[in-house]
Amino acid sequence: MAAVILKSGVHAIQEFLTEDFYNEYANFLYILYPMIGITAAYLVGKFIFKDVGGHGIPDVLFIISKKQSLIPRVKMYSRLFTSALTVGFGGSVGLEAPMVVTGSAIGSNTGLLMHLNAKKRTLLIGCGAAAAISAIFGAPIGAVIFAIEVILMEISTASFIPLLIASVMGSLTSMILIGKDSIFNFNFQETFHASHMPYYLLLGIICGLVSLYFNRAVRKTESALEGLESQSMRMLYGGALLGFMVFFFPPIYGEGYSTLNQLIEGKSAEILNRSPFFSVIENPYMIIIFLVLIILVKPIASALTIGGGGSGGIFAPSLYVGGIVGFVFAYSKNLFGFHIPLPLASFTLVAMCGVMSGVQHSPLSAIFLIAEITGGYELFVPLMFVSAISYITTTYYQKDSLYSLQLKDKGKFLPESKDQELLELIDITHVIERDLLPIHPDSKLKDLTNLVKISKRNIFPVVDEKKSLRGIVTLDDIRDIMFDASQQDTVFIRDLMHSPPEILLATENMQKAMEKFESSGAWNLPVIENGIYLGFVSKSRIFNAYRKRLIRQKQD
């Protein structure tokens, strides 16, 4: 229902703002609309909902990983309003990410209301995300795979059932309330020919390279906006630059799916109609130049929208750019008349899959999503092939997805494996051992010998009066002299102590701690907080805590 409300609201706003536009005149309101939308979205988010916009999906991934899947309640409805204002007024982003945030928040808070544990709340977050994508695209299979591939990462067979039910219900609800209208309203009838495969190979490589450009353009643009002094400056510059981009290139207004429909239906000349500078030009080469410029501009426009304070995601922009890449590829090849003609619709759709796979690192989601929303199951072979080639090309140069990179830019890191995820659930301060007996550096050997008699450990931290760690002494260090009476009063601890192989900080995560254990080869390492000695951490204590976490997770 949230997806239906959002889609209907955006379309109503766009129709109200653009229904009286005249194609033959320059639509100067295009310059103002995006700035108004971004500003309104930011102000509503900040002062009414206390939830400023942004990408959304990276935040959901971080909350699942680090915050026990507890998504703030306000996100169940805040993104409906802010993203409707952003996209409705021409923000060049998609509605999918805000809807994933909304659906995930509904799932998380439902789990909290029912007193479910973090693992089951995570599953409900996946269910909410799947229902949202299914409702928007009418693609229940693709939505389930998206939830598994992007949101949940790992899932058991039993957990697969709730995802299926949620996705089907999302699709049915949308179908009942607004009908079967799809984002792409054409009848795909082209057939696949094996002779096209060399071109699909080249298209896959191009999609991978375009994905790299897309990711880097988005991050650099957002970084440039963050470098501005205040949010008002970001809204001003972001909205103004976006407005001028939309003025020169009207097809990037809003989500842009209507442009893709025109390209797939073979009405490429119509995309120039709304442009004040290109509408009178019917040269096919100008169409190619115009579309190539849109490919270069769209990622920047999306980043300006979000970085300026708007709410949206890069899901739709990646599909949009991919579709234009595929059309330009096939259109250019056919224009030059080399070899066999290529079907424009097929290459447009397959490239949408390729760029989505490269940008989001979700090859399976891209395959099923495009196949479902277009009914183009005839294209499964090229969809699989191009998705794989694009993914390989992108990951060769860039290991992480755009979502992970955006989190890293903020100093936030997601675990790369299940082991790392479990380790990061262990707080280093909870596994500190405090039964090691400290000794002062000015003490003598006989004092240490007395400690050895009562200690159950073979390591003795050397701690001064300020509780600062000066070094350590092990039983092996004094084994040869500890019973030598002549040295009991003449040898001082400061002469025996040595530095530990590594020092752990109380603020470090467990992954960093394990790296220090591995690099040093030590079994026990001291923990320091603000220069104060706290105790030691041993590998055995960490392994025991890890084992308990693993057993608890399996029981859940």
From TrEMBL:
It is found in: Membrane. Keywords: CBS domain, Chloride, Chloride channel, Ion channel, Ion transport, Membrane, Transmembrane, Transmembrane helix, Transport. Signal peptide: none annotated. GO terms for molecular function: chloride channel activity. Residues 432-490, 497-554 form the CBS domain. InterPro entries: CBS_dom, CBS_dom_sf, Cl-channel_core, ClC, ClC-type_chloride_channel. Its main location: membrane. The chain crosses the membrane at residues 25-45, 76-95, 123-148, 160-178, 198-214, 235-253, 285-307, 314-332, 338-359, 366-392. It holds the Pfam family Voltage_CLC. It is a multi-pass membrane protein. One of its GO terms (cellular component) is chloride channel complex. This is CIC family chloride channel protein.
